[in-house]
Write a structure and sequence with these properties.
The protein has about 70 residues and is α+β, with helices and mostly antiparallel strands. It has four helices and two strands; from the N terminus they run H-H-E-H-E-H. The protein is globular.
Length: about 70
Amino acid sequence: DIVQTYQIVKKELESFSDILAKKPEIILLTKTDLIDENSLEEKIKTLEKTGKEILSVSIYNQKQLEQLKELLQ
């Protein structure tokens, strides 16, 4: 369950540092070249319920890498 995994990571960050837990979040889905488009869209749709920004990235997709770079600046 991708949302449950997100919640586990979020709780771990909160237990590690309150400051870190309060920083803006981006959910980054990596290695998206390894799954089919329908599965990726399903995961994104499920994660949209978190209200966080979601970005999917494959190292083989230069456009996606540029989007990530712009987002992080």
